[in-house]
Specification:
Blueprint lengths: L2 H9 L11 H24 L2 H22 L4 H25 L4 H23 L10 H28 L4 H11 L1 H9 L4 H24 L11 H22 L2 H7 L9
Helix pairs in contact: 2-3, 2-4, 2-9, 2-10, 3-4, 4-6, 5-6, 6-7, 6-9, 7-9, 8-9, 9-10
């Protein structure tokens, strides 16, 4: 490597490890939450629950390792990890209620405390919670810890409204659809803090997506449409794959090269 090339390399900015919150991001995030719920529910019906939880945890760990080793945002590895978080986060919340008998209100509170602790630690160590500043391994680890906590808390919260409070899945969809407008409108019209609005919306997408998946897949006797958890899970997996493919197609040529692991050193 020449001296000039070395200088360029050392002065180049560190690459972001997570995506910007664009409209496509939010759509894919919502789909991933619904997919995680449907896949988790389907898996515990086709295999023993303990085996399903262990498989979900193993796949989550593998996906996270792959994502962390990329060193930059790559759509397929990032969204694979989010999908596995969705599956395992659902299982983590369900285990507390089904296996341990913990009421939904307590499990929701527990995961909310865990999430708050992650945010406090993250803020103390890095002095920022902005997703735009996630350019180091430690910040990315803290980011994923927060993501896991949001999925687990959101799952418990969705079950609390739909089952614990007896509202049902459709009413829960309406409630969380209204709630998610709060940070959107606050950011747009009241100039609320962008970091606060992002994480507010990020948390709410989980119970919203989970309620949609349950409404579509659960039997009519349980308040759902009865489409079946397997077909719903498959449809959501395919939809999420299509969205990730769309991200690749709309990305500039240089971004696609970076995502694929190459760098030409020439701006497109």
């Amino acid at each position: 490597m020449t001296r000039l090339a070395t200088a360029r390399h050392s002065s180049s900015p560190r690459l972001p490890r997570v995506p910007d919150p664009t409209p496509v991001f939010w759509i894919t995030k919502a789909v991933s939450t619904a997919m995680g719920e449907a896949v988790s529910d389907y898996s515990i019906h086709v295999m023993p629950p303990v085996a399903a939880v262990l498989c979900g945890f193993a796949l989550f760990v593998i996906a996270l390792i792959v994502q962390l080793t990329r060193g930059r945002y790559t759509p397929w590895s990032y969204w694979l990890t989010v999908g596995m978080v969705g599956v395992f986060g659902t299982m983590a919340a369900d285990v507390m209620h089904v296996a341990l008998g913990v009421p939904y209100a307590i499990s929701t509170t527990f995961y909310a405390v865990v999430l708050a602790a992650v945010f406090l630690l993250w803020r103390r160590l890095e002095h920022t919670l902005s997703v735009h500043d996630i350019v180091t391994p430690r910040r990315e680890l803290l980011y994923w810890a927060a993501v896991v906590a949001t999925f687990a808390m959101g799952t418990a919260l969705g079950d609390l409204t739909a089952i614990g409070l007896g509202m049902g899945y459709l009413a829960s969809i309406v409630v969380f659809a209204v709630v998610i407008l709060i940070p959107a409108l606050g950011f747009r019209f009241a100039r609320w803090n962008g970091v606060f609005c992002f994480w507010f919306a990020y948390v709410v997408t989980r119970p919203l997506g989970a309620s949609i998946a349950d409404f579509l897949g659960k039997p009519r006797a349980d308040g759902g449409l009865g489409a079946g958890e397997g077909p719903v899970a498959l449809a959501l997996v395919l939809l999420m794959a299509a969205l990730v493919g769309f991200m690749y197609l709309r990305a500039p040529r240089r971004e696609r090269a970076l995502a694929g692991g190459t760098f030409t050193g020439v701006e497109s």
